[in-house]
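[job 4471] stage=fold_predict status=RUNNING
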Amino acid sequence: RQKDAMIEKLRLKNATLKTHIKKVEVQLKHKEEMGDVLHYIDFHQLQIENKQYVAKIDERNQELLQLKMTTGKTVQVLNDLKKKLNALIHESEWLKQEIQQRTELLAKLRYDN
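[job 4471] inference complete, writing structure tokens
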């Protein structure tokens, strides 16, 4: 559940960063269309911020991928343990029946003697 929460949190952050990038790109496009060309320094600053956001998105995607892989491995282990538990439950039931049968046989033998 924590992993699912973490995955959801990372997805939301990822979406927020993508939205912010689109917003900045729309602002830049709007300024260009209006003839209000950005100064070189402003444009350069936006490029730097964009690269930082892209790097953050890539980092979050890597974290998300790692969490997905971990979740997959955990599910595999859980399934293996469930199979083992099921086998042990069946063995336990068989042993209980065996004990009951032998107890009844022992009681019968004592009664006959």
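[job 4471] summary: The CA atoms of residues 60 and 72 lie 18 Å apart.
[job 4471] exit 0
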